[in-house]
Amino acid sequence: MFAYWDEEIRPQIARIRGVSVNDIKIDALGDLRLLRVSIIHNGGILSGANHAKLKKMNGLCKPDATIMFTHDAMHKVFVFIKQAIGEIILHYTGHLPGAPNPSEIVGVAIQSGGGKP
Description:
Blueprint: H1 2-17, H2 27-41, E1 45-46, H3 48-53, E2 65-66, H4 71-93, H5 106-109
Antiparallel strand pairs: 1-2
């Protein structure tokens, strides 16, 4: 999911808005990047430094420990991602023709992901 966001969606939004790709940021997807890096490049261990950088998903795992998600934690990850999609729509594309009306995505926006709102 992170690769699709980072390689496809983020550059498209940046191009449409006329800004740098690095200006397009969504906290939950940044957290997903940190988790991905830890899984792929750090043997599944989330360092204390990377744990401190988590903005939405910091309650799902512990610093300097193996990332191991329970069923409930995985559900929360998906809720955070759904909320990120809502944030993308409202913040980055809501003004564009064809963008959904906020009332159409209310089910995504109100789900509880636990942790910090």
